[in-house]
Every structure is written in C-alpha cells, then in structure tokens.
Amino acid sequence: MNVALTNKIILSVIIFFSSLAALPAALANQSSLLINTWDTLSNNVSQTWNEPQHYDLYVPAITWHARFAYDKEKTDRYNERPWGIGFGQTRWDENGNWHGLYLMAFKDSYNKWEPIGGYGWEKIWRPLADDNFHLGLGYTLGATARDNWKYIPVPVILPLASVGYGPATFQMTYIPGTYNNGNVYFAWLRFQF
Which residues does this entry assign to the site Role in lipopolysaccharide recognition (predicted)? Predict the structure, then answer.
C-alpha cells in the first residue's frame, strides 16, 4: 500500500473518532437547548394561565381548501364556512408580544364539530405611528379532534399570522398536507375585552 493512501486512511480514522469524541458534547448542547425551550414554553403557558390581562372571544371566519391541492369534486363538497365560537385569555409580555390560551369549536370541512385548544404566541410589530395597528407572526401548540378521526385527540403545531387594530385581530393559520388532504387556510376574528 502506498504511503499517501495509508496517511489518508489514518487521517480519516482520526477525524472519525474525533467526531465521535465530540458527540456527547453536541448531544449535551442539544439536550440543554430542548430543556431551555421546554422551560420557556411551560413558563409562558403558566404565566398566561395565572396572569391573564384580557379575555378573548374567537369567531371562526373562513376555511379555504387550496385549490391547487384538491380535486374539484372534493372542494365542491367541503364546508368553507366554519361556524363556531371560542374563548381565551391573552397576556402581552414586556416586549409587546402576544401569548394566548384558547378553546374553540367550529364546523369542519365535513360540516361536523371540531374542537381545538392550546397555546399561541406571536411576535408583534407596530409599523405605524398609530400603536393600535399591529402585525404578528408566531405559532400555536395544542390539540384538536375530528369526527372522521373518531374524536381521538391529535396534537397540532401550526404557524400563526395576524393583523389587528386595537382589540380586534384577524388571526390565521395554514394546515399543511398532501394532495386531497390538509392544505387548508383557516382564519378567525379575535376580540379582546
């Protein structure tokens, strides 16, 4: 075997075992990140539960099935008027960001009742001189249950976006999916009182 090839093999082995030696530290960093994320989330949920600043009325407004992801005969049958109602509580943090706990029920695509509840967070921007106007981007974590799934609770992690003025906010999410499944835009009005 030539010397150059032997040196490359030895160097590769050294790099491989050096990577393995660094693995516990990398895993510890990931573990620490997960623990910190969980602590932040649980503290925010707990604080929002224990220290609400406002209560909210949720009014489902629209469900839209992305036409590019569905057969027309399916979308023709689906309900896109999600009648329902929900209630929640809001906390605004020291950075002006929104934290909310909510429970909502609405008519799903099959016109059956679907409950959803959870925690939501949005980073809020106030781009105009008028502080009442606000935009938000964030996420929600929670659970839902559907008739076509025999009302077995299913966890959800979804994006959130909003535009609002004063106590009224138009909030929305997008449920990703595959062809003829998911790919739904869902929006509601949230009134703070």
Answer: 74
